[in-house]
Every structure is written in C-alpha cells, then in structure tokens.
Amino acid sequence: MDNRLIYLDNAATSFPKPQEVLEKMIDNYSRLGVSPGRGSYDLAMESAELVSQTREKVANFFGASDPERVIFASNATDALNLAIQGLVNKGDHVISTRLEHNSVLRPLSHLQKEIGIEVDLVGFDQWGKASVGSIEKAIKPNTKLIVCTQASNVLGTVQPVAKIAEVAAAYGIPLLIDTAQSAGHVPVEMSKWGVDAVAFTGHKALLGPSGIGGLVLSPELDVKTTRFGGTGFESRSLFHTQSYPYRLEAGTLNVLGIFGLAAGIDYLQKEGVEQAHQKEMALIKRLYEGLSTLPGVKIYSPKPTECDVPVLTCIVEGMAPEDVGSILDGDFAIAVRTGLHCAPLVHADLGTDEQGAIRFSLGRFNTDADIDQALQAMEIISSSR
Question: Does some domain include residue 344?
Fold first, then answer.
C-alpha cells in the first residue's frame, strides 16, 4: 500500500480543500481584507459588497427568499445556539430527536436546567429515520420549536425534513434544521419545504475553511438578540439594532471565512453537487459491501441509499474503536474518526455508548483505490483479533 494519507474523516472537516477555493479566498482577502461596513472608504465598501454577494449566494444555495436573513456565525454550533436561545423562553416545549449532535442537545439541556423548558426527544427506527408521526404525537400546546438534523453524523441517514416541515406548519411551530452533514451533499430547499430556519457550517461539504457558518431565516421568523456589540450600524444607540442581518451579528465578521465560503459555493455549483454525491454514494456502498463480508465487523449504518450522505459507522468486535483507528492511521495511513462523534444518544441507542465506534466519512476527492485500501486494512485488522 502507498503511504499517501487516505482521508476518510470528511464528516468532521472536508480535506483537502480545492486549490481553486483556497486561491480565490486568499486573493480576495489580500485585496479586500478590511472591516466591511465599518468605513466609508472604497476598500471597506468593496469588502462589504463581497459580503453582501455571499449572503445572496448562501440564500440561493439553501432556497431561501431573503439574503438579509442570512446571518454569519462561526459554525453550525454557533448558529444553532443563536437560533435555539433566540427562539425559546421559560415554560416552552421543544421537540427534537435522539439523532442530534451535541450542538443541539447541549443548548436544549442547558435551557432545560437553567430556565425550565420542556424537551422531548423522538427516537429513530431501524433505517435510522426519525418518525414524523412520533414528532406530531409529541406536540403540546406550549411547543414553540422543532429542531432536527437533516443528516445523521453517525448513521449517514437523511431525515424526512419536508414532511416534518408540513407537520410543523400545520401546528404553527417553527422548524429549525441542522444541515452540518447535509449541505453540499443533498438538496436543502428551505422555502419550498417550508423550513423556518437552517443552520449550516462552511468547513464540511461546502468546502470552505473552518470558523465560518451561519443561520438562514425565513422572513416570517424573528429570533431575539442574545449577544450585543458593534455592527457599524445605528452606532448612536446603546441598544443593539433589531434590523437584519445585524440583529444577530455582533463584532467584526470573519471576512476571510466569508470569502472562503463564497468560493466553496462557487466551486460546488460549477462542478455540480448531484454528480459528486452520486460518486460519493457509490464509494460508500462499495465500502459497505466490502465491510459486510469481513469477520467480526459489525456495521451500524443502514445500507446506503442515494438519498443518504457518505457516512458509515461500524466496530470490529473484540477491539476498542480507538485502537482500530490508531492502527488504521499508524500502519495504513488511513484517517477515520472514532468515539462518540459528539452524538451520545445515537450511540446509547445503538449500544455503542461505552467505547463508541469507527466512522468512515467520504468526500468528493476520495477514489475507488481509497476504498479498496481501507477494505484491505480492515480485513487485516479484523483477521488479527
């Protein structure tokens, strides 16, 4: 086997980034890396214009109607915190799922403890899907928010977001979705589906740098301000502006990240999302089928379909996942993620909560050869138990 790193941890961060994205990001930052909207000089105005254009690109990418409702944040976790803490008050009831990442579970648990909100977490079936019927049954008179992931970062399964949105709309409850694992792989049609808020991150399948993400809101949804500071807008007032997008942004924006996000979206739209996704799913199926034949390898992800994302979680029976990951890295130059993947309730329901599991997650630059080498390595490891 060659010693080139085989990177199979794209659900954490996509790597490598396209050279075209890196060059465009750095070029724009080297020319326009000043504080946008903080000065009347030409360079600041040009920088602000590029930021504004990025809001438009993000809105179009997610099928949203108003670019001014695109809020920049550090990542999906930051955006989810903005939305959850800005929508939920004492005595409110929130519905979510046991598929969630800690970026949803921890804000909800914090509010449950600190201000006494009620939380119901819906389970998932053998196909890794949350039941729309169970979500509807969990609705109470004081339900003020439904929040769910679009794609599980452990199982790779895509949830029926459009159907969940129908239920939420029927009861007049806002729906917030976490697209950290889905954006850049599968469509997100915010207005078409009736989704009220989308949290996203730039550093995964959107192919941008770390440190940039955001929140996209429907025009009908207002999120209260939970942090305050300078915006370069309405500076006379000692109270934070309530105008969007500045209502939810405080301090100087991550201009380098925004330029990188714009470059990543441009690259995706030029190269095609659907074609890359089809290739990725063909590779994950190849991996699934190969691992299924190996003694002692137990796969927890359902058999991949074209509607899923390229994530597969498994264990090697009798071996700690952390040890398997170390062997893959040290002996075979294969990078995977082991542990609980910041989604403890999924692992609790799978029965893998003590040691976690091994996660393979693919990106657009993985190849058949990568999968074949991973399978060879896993065969050697599983045979040596």
Answer: yes
